[in-house]
Amino acid sequence: MTHNLTDEERDLYELVKDFADTVVAPRSYEADTKHELPMDVVAQMGELGLFGLPFPEEYGGQGGDYFALCLAIEALARVDQSIAITLEAAIGLGAMPIYRYGTDEQKAEWLPDLVAGKALAGFGLTEAEAGSDAAATRTTAVLNGDEWVVNGSKQFITNSGTPISRFISVAAVTGERTRADGSVSKELSTIIVPHGTPGFTVEQSYDKVGWRASDTHPLTFDDVHVPAANLLGERGRGFANFLRTLDEGRIAVAALATGAADGCVEESVKYAKSRNVFGVPIASHQFIAFTIAQMQARVHTSRLAWQDAARRCDAGQPFKTEAAIAKLVASDAAMLNARDATQIFGGYGFMNESLVARQYRDSKILEIGEGTNEVQLMIIARSLGLEG
Question: Quick one: average pLDDT of 152-157?
């Protein structure tokens, strides 16, 4: 893992890896069974400075970069994808839009607690008919005097219902725009809606197949009034801002998927060496050894892909296609490695107390979230001039 890292990056990875093994892993099965995000673990992540990794020191951050964040996410995902996605969403979907597009007043109000891990925020994009097609958004925000009036609903919103959730950045239709060819399109903007605002309801959490300790809810907005100053970024730039957020998120999800795939390798190696069948460890059978070798090859390839995309992102270079490739390759690796690990474990791999069983359930969403893998193929194909 550490051959391509600076000393500082290597130390960070080892720090988070140790935290994952000693603090997160022992709580993982219980949290998964109870469908509860362990808030004491989240608090410890805040104390370690994980929520502030890519933010400057003026807001209480660590002064790091996106690569550092992805290292931490990979290390956590080895043992618990729910905890890893909590960190990813808290930064990429919660704090980063405020840092990148917020006014000085918005940054001063929200960033310190988000960066310290004392607060969480969600990104309200997905709707029943608007997921991969964000332009199909139906939630509206109408400017009425000095207030926005928000109506609509969102679904699958991470970190939206925890005890420390503070606000949702809501993607909403704020009007119409006429293109140069005379056609009319929706004007999409982002509105900050704080928790506790009348008319804003966090609905009951989902009963999910995987990521069961991650906090995920549908949201309803019924004549929700917020100040006009709660506009996040330039009016009408919501869609462009979403795309940047999603591109970066794909790198982080690729890092998460790589960690999940790596965790399956670690568990499979340990089990194959200790599990005896017909008097010998199953690791001595070539089929088992070759299966694990193939799993390791997937991890290596996925890691190279997300690290390349993250380095490009931090250097200010184009990274959209590389992010799509990383997300595609790594999510496939996580799913395939989880399947192979479960097969190696046999009946034990079908028990939820087994880490590989949880990785198997958790990994499917990696092929869906942050843009389905079909969307990633579309992005890659377009980069090759294949528009069909």
Answer: 96
pLDDT for the residue numbered 195: 98
Sign of CA dihedral 368, 134, 321, 306: negative
CATH number of 240-383: 1.20.140.10
Select which of 234, 370, 374, 387 is catalytic. Answer: 370
Assess whether pLDDT exceeds 90 at residue 38.
yes
CATH classification number, 121-237, choose in 3.10.129.10, 2.115.10.20, 2.40.110.10, 2.160.20.80 = 2.40.110.10
**Token pair belonging to 281:** 């460890």
pLDDT of 179 reads 77
Instruction: Please return the burial class of 4, using the count of CB atoms within 10 Å of its CB with bins 0-12, 13-18 and 19+.
Output: exposed
Least confident of 3-7, 39-43, 142-146: 3-7
Place of tokens 């890519």: 54
The secondary structure element, H or E, covering residue 248 is helix 238-274
Domain with CATH 1.10.540.10 in the chain: 2-119
Is 370 in the active site?
A: yes
pLDDT digits (tens, 9 = 90+) for 276-316: 898 899 999 999 999 999 999 999 999 999 999 999 999 99
Distance of CA 6 to the CA centre of its chain: 24
CATH topology classification for 2-119: Butyryl-Coa Dehydrogenase, subunit A; domain 1 (1.10.540)
Helix or strand run (H / E) with residue 231: strand 231-232
- Spatial CA neighbour of 128 closest among 151, 150, 152, 154: 154
Question: pLDDT per residue over 248-270, tens digit each?
Answer: 999 999 999 999 999 999 999 99
Measured CA to CA, the distance from residue 187 to residue 176 in angstroms comes to: 5
